[in-house]
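[job 0412] stage=fold_complex status=start
inputs:
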Amino acid sequence: MSIVALRDAVVLLGRFPALSGVDLEVDAAEVVLLQGPNGAGKSTLLRFCAGLLRPHSGSAVVLGHDLRESRPAVRRSVGLLGHDTALYDDLTVTENLQFLARASRIEIEAVGSALNRLGVSARLHDVVVGQLSAGQRRRVALAGVALRRPELWLLDEPHAGLDQGGRDLVDGLVADAAADGATVLVASHELDRTLELATRRVTVVGGTITTDVVDAASVTDPPVQSKQES
Amino acid sequence: MSADAVNTGSRTTRLLGAAVLIGVLALILLGFFGAPEDDEQRDAVRMIFVHLPSAFGIYAAMATTAVGSVMWLWKRSRWWDIVAHSSAEIGVIFCGLTLFTGSVWGRPTWNTYWDWGDVRLVTTLILFLMLVGYLALRSAGGDENAMATRAAVVGLLAAVNVPIINRSVEWWSNRTLHQKSSLTDGNLEDLTLFTLFVGIVVWALFFVWAMIHRFRIGWLEHQLRDIDLETALIQRRAEAATESSGEESR
Amino acid sequence: MFADIWLVTNKDLRIEWRSRVTLSQVAPFALTVLVLFGFALDANPEVLTAATSGLFWLTVLFVAVVAVQRSTAIETADGARRALLLAGIEPSSVFVGKALAIAVQILGVEVLMVGGVLLFYDATVESLPLLLATCAVATLAIAASGTLLGALVAGVRARETVLPILLLPLLAPVLIAASRAFDDALGVLAVDGWAWLGLLAGFGIVNALLGMLAYGPLLEET
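[job 0412] stage=fold_complex status=done
writing structure:
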């Protein structure tokens, strides 16, 4: 079963067709790198796959749920890191993640290990998020995604604003997720980094997919059959 | 596009429009010269031929908006969304007319333009403010679907709260200057009653006529947006064809 | 369901406790308005007594607008609404949770304002149960309608102006009913305050139910 199956999907932001007809099939355990110029529709594609946007036309099934009717079911099983971190400025790091955990029905104990995983030091746990640096904040947001152990990871520029250590942590996180059988979609400009992880490179331009290359170099045991190469 | 396609008129609306015009003429004749003046209210009673039909119009418009709102939320039917919007706009006109004729009538009858003690007048004023809020929200722009949902909720809020507003104002004033019920009073002359009936029919026809026109405008706007969308889609896909990097960010 | 409601209420109140917007800005604002009303009407103490209830609840409505705006801003800043959607909490629980948090804050301001009214307006409490019950019921009704409209205007461009245009007319029955119930509780008018309380409760229930139903579709539209 495909994790993501989009056919001629059109998504509007207001009256702007951010996605102008996307065809995309992603299978389990794939790590897909989305590349393309600014404004190409990469972020919209990720938010769409997260079940946050309604399709205008075309068909869209994510994790077996139709995005026209059952977006809530999709949302519960994905993890999305967006441009904004979706954290409350006035709550501490721990409070923010505990809120997320409780709201998502995840045991509270997962919070500590997720923060450790992202290298957020213990002295920051009781600091109000509004006082964190951009990079620290991003790590906390990533911990919030990791906490959910999602079946589908949707990461929008996960390396942005992170130091070398942070970038390595992100790569490790993605590798582990894929090893666990989760599927990952990453939008990134850090081509040199993400290339190593990606099993597939998809180029998005003008709200549609222009090239879709299965990266033979990084595919060792091919769970992915060669797809429409263009 | 041909001139025909952008016209909101049709055979039906022209007939309806003519009927409304003739009806208004008949209403003027009947109202001013046919119906007798009232024993107490003298000529002022004639205001009721406009006042009461307008007040009925508000409720008809509110009910239509409420139904349209439910249908949008339930079926996401654009047709009903436009119906809800159209009838809210016409409802504001009826509301304004009711308030205006009510206070003009109030001057000679109650010796004041405005009486806070009158339940229906105050209720109508609050309704008027809510409808103005509804239209203000509609005009705020943004995503079409989001706006339809927001407006539908406000339309339902307004409709659901009408009885509560009415009850609260009724208790609050504790004294209604309003005639208990103009229709069932019994001491209205036959011709007065008939004129009132004509007024209601004419206003109902006007409501339907205005609804059809306003709806068609809304529908044309919707179609125009669809055409714009087609163009936008073609442009968007053209970006992919040229595949130029470093485009303007969006 | 109750756990989720408490989760949201607790979160909003904790944020308020940290930022102290209501405590340090809204409460002084409310007292200032009361004092200014006093100046405006003090030439005639009888008028002031007669108008006490109305002024009190009018001020509460202004406080409510500010509280709702703040409560909406918490979720719109930094895309926190998205996190709520992704977490999968029932939207109706979010609605009730946020409404309760707003109600607690408004109630806090009301306690101060009752003190202000007793002090500045020389009011006396004839029926404490009625006074307390009115505050509780009216505040819940205001919070419910406010939370619903707050979510409704969240994605609108001119939301600071649209919110009061929509909220204040809707709350007209609350202003009327709560003022009359207060008139009875303060012994200003011989009316049946408890009947007014019933009307307030009816308003609250109707709008809270509508809010629980409509909150999901509204949250979805962002």
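[job 0412] summary: Chain C has one domain: 2-219.
[job 0412] exit 0
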